[in-house]
Amino acid sequence: MIAEEAAVLFGVLSNADRLSVIRALVEVGPDGMSAGDIARQIGASPSRASFHLNALSEAGFLTKERQSRSQNYRIDFNKIGQLITFLMDDCCKGNAELRNCCSMRAG
Amino acid sequence: MIAEEAAVLFGVLSNADRLSVIRALVEVGPDGMSAGDIARQIGASPSRASFHLNALSEAGFLTKERQSRSQNYRIDFNKIGQLITFLMDDCCKGNAELRNCCSMRAG
DNA sequence: TACATATTTCAAGAATCATTGAAATGAAAG
DNA sequence: CTTTCATTTCAATGATTCTTGAAATATGTA
After folding, report:
1. Which residues in chain B have their CB less than 8 angstroms from residue A25's CB?
2. Minimum mean pLDDT among A80-84, B2-6, B13-17, B93-97: which range?
3. How far is the CA of A46 from the C1' of D23 (A)?
4. At A69, which CATH number?
5. Pick from A17, B11, B21, B61: most CB atoms within 10 A?
6. Do B91 and A19 touch (CB under 8 A)?
7. In which element (H, E) is residue B74 found?
8. In chain B, which residues have their Cβ closer than 8 Å to the Cβ of A102?
9. Nearest to A25 by CA among A76, A60, A98, A85
10. Does any domain span residue B49?
11. How far apart are alpha carbons B46 and B40 in whole angstroms?
C-alpha cells in the first residue's frame, strides 16, 4: 500500500463515530447490523450514520447488502489488516519494538 | 486507549507529508534528523514541515531536542504501537484474521 | 395505488485542517 | 552587537470535513 492511500484510510478512521461503528460491527459478528440499528447504537441520526457508513464502506472497511428494506452492514477485517501491515512494514520497517506490541499475545 | 484519543492519532497519520516524515525518521534511525533536513527530504517548505512536525510531536509520534541551531527529531515507536494495539484489541477484539496479518512474519 | 418503513442524498452552514509567505524567535559566529 | 543560520509563529486564504434537517429514493404492505 502506498502512503497516500494509507493516509486516506487513516482519515476514515480519524472519527469517533466511525470507530464506534467498527466496534459495534465487530461485536455483533458476521451477521452484521442494519443501518438503523447502527445509528441507534452509536447515538447518531440516520443521515449522520449514513454519512459515516458510506465513508467506511467506500474505504473498504465494511461491506453492505440490502435485506428487504434495510441495508445490512458487516465488518471486513481486510483493510484494517492492510493498514496495520503498512504501519509495521512499510512505515516502520518491521521495527522489533513495534512487532512485540501486537504479536501473539493471548493467542 | 479510548476511541476519541485513537481518532485524534489517526487524524495525525492521515496526511502523506506526515507519513513521509515518519518514514524518513525510521530510515535514518536513532540519530534522528534536523527539521531542515526533513523538510528537504520530504520536499516541503520550512514552515510547512514545521507545521507537520509539530502535529507529529504533539501527538507523541516524535521527540525533539535542540542541538545547537537545529532541532533534532527522532521517531518514537510507542504511540504507533499503542495505535496498533487499539486497532487489534480494542477495536477488533483480537480477531484472528487480523492477528495473522502482523505476527512474527520474517521475524 | 396509497401508505409506511428504511436509508440515502442534498444544500447550507459550521468547524477543522493545510498552505503560503512574511515576520519573529533562538542560537552561534564574526 | 550585528549578522547569519535554523526554525517557528502568525495571519490570511483556501480546501476539506462534519452536522443538520428536509427532500428524495427504495422496498414492502394494505
Report:
1. none
2. B93-97
3. 14
4. 1.10.10.10
5. B21
6. yes
7. strand B70-75
8. 81, 84-85, 88, 99, 102-103
9. A76
10. yes
11. 8
Q: DSSP letter string over A51-100?
A: HHHHHHHHHTSEEEEEETTEEEEEE-HHHHHHHHHIIIIIITTT-HHHHH
Chain B residue at shortest CA distance from A92: B26
* Nucleotide in closest CA–C1' contact with B11: C17
| Nearest CB neighbour to B94, from listed A91, A99, A106 | A106
Residue B22 resides in a domain: yes
Is-contact A82 A40, C-beta < 8 A?
no
pLDDT tens for residues B13-39? 999 999 999 999 999 999 999 999 999
Residue span of the structural domain in which A47 resides: 3-81
Whether residue B32 lies inside any domain: the answer is yes
**Would you call B85 and A94 a contact, using CB atoms and an 8 Å cutoff?**
no
CB contact under 8 Å between B88 and A91, yes or no, is no
Task: Say yes or no: B29 contacts chain A, CB-CB below 8 A.
Answer: no
What's the average model confidence in pLDDT over B31-48? 98
Is B81 a domain residue? no
Domain count for chain A: 1
